[in-house]
Input
Amino acid sequence: MAGIDVGGKNVHIVIKKDGEIIGKGAAPTGIKKAETVEALYDQVLKQAGLMRKDVERVVATGSAAKRVAFANGFIADAAADARGVIKLFPNARTVINVGAEEGRSIKVSPEGKVLDFAINDKCAAGTGTFVEAMSRALEVSVEEMSKIALDSTKSIPMNAQCAVFGESEVVSLIHQKTSKPDISRAVMDAVAGRVGSVARIVGLEKDVVVVGGMAKNAGFVDSLQKNIEMPVTVPEDPDYIGAIGAADAALSSILEEEVKAKVVERESLPEGKAY
Amino acid sequence: MAQQGKPVEFWRWPETNWVNPYIDWEKGKLVTAGVDVGSVSTQAVIMVDGEFFAFGNTRTGSDSPNSAIKGMGYALEKTDMKIENIDYCIGTGYGRVNVPMAQQSITEISCHARGANFMYGPEVRTVMDMGGQDCKVINVDDRGKVLNFMMNDKCAAGTGRGMEVFADLIHVPVWEIGPRSFQISKEPPSISSTCVVFAKSEVVGLLEQGVPENEIMAAYCSAMAHRIMELLKRLGVKEKFVITGGIAKNEGVVKRLEKELGIKTAEQVWANPQYRKKNYPFDTQLAGALGAALFGQALLKMGKTISVKKT
Output
């Protein structure tokens, strides 16, 4: 089974055999998305010692899932997140996925079904892109920012919501001699604030699991916990959750022989609340 | 306008200043000034007895006080007037509280409404100010008084800043975008991303696909028009409808907005026939500073000024 998650920034691929992950890989999506997927797929297969014909089913997810020409089926991003998380954390009721270009909050049932979800995919504030833009202005890498934000002693609110205006604000904070840890903290708090408000649209219920690329950012996760006033859990490979969920979907659809019912076309899924 | 050795900055629009050759300011009774320190541009306007005397239009620097001083200096440059000769000065715009030569500050909403009334005449009912970092729709009465307004100052989409980011990205000077966006064979679908940051990636994708630059400009202008429409729909538009601010100079956005709205913007002329005849420069960016200078005139006449001090 293979799960392919084509996101705004990165492509993640997971190969599963009998429920075990036997191969995985990630690559930047780039502009030629289809080519990236093809190359990464072959690379991951090679590392796992497999050929394309060995894979029974391929399920794709993510914002550009349709670019995976060889996929047997598609699963909605939210559904993939829910599936991926519930396998690892059966007690999870809220899944917050913060990726490069999207932030969403999903209410999941104990069976891993999507009960409700809210999404922000219109605005860079509250996504990884926002942090990247600020890291350019601050001239500190995102990894570094995520660490030094934890050393901050002062909480400074950011006035700008917009990433474009935020860059100017970061520059003026630098001019005011604000320390880099404090600026990093301000940036993480700003993202957490936006993500928190998306999460509150569907309601927060314990346990909260945070996935997506931003979940690897310790500073952000800390800010988010403070914002939603709840502890959160982060899985080992938070950015692979979508691909894992897609691979699971591929597996279950074979087991249950209900291919069409389980793996639905993206268009037929209920629309999330746009905010 | 690129200097040698320096990278070309495509968002940099030219600065301008002007003086009215028909006015002898020394014979005037009331000399007032309005300084509009915006997030991107700073304008200073000097009025003598309610007549438009001089202006300077400059880019805002890293801090408001210096930008105000620079703008005022630029307005005075072609005149023999000194800053001490100004009786009353009002600051407006984003940095209005940081205008060192101003005795008072008035919000840019009021000033734009008043300035548009002076520029386009008392028939103006809806003023839309499209600034560098925000966008305001203002409903006004026949005296230029604000009845209601709505603004977007949270998001760069639909603001001048968004256009500058785009100009830098495609390497086309910002003032060429409007005209070039019409040099196309057919109107392309507009950019689908709302967010400027995401729109940037979308534009890069289009460039990569080999879509002609002019078509991308058309797509971006039309996306901006869509974005502004949302704000206009919420407050409602009444004729005469005018657009002030920097984006008003971008016909690519204005014409597409007019088409979507089904309402034409009022002709760009001075309401006062005296100015029209003499071909005075018409600059949509001046509305705020003009409004501030007009408020100064009115306040002086009514004797309602706050301790006139000469700096």
Notes: Residues 180-202 of chain A form the longest helix (23 residues). The domain at 1-89+239-275 of chain A is CATH 3.30.420.40 (Nucleotidyltransferase; domain 5). Chain A has a mean pLDDT of 86.
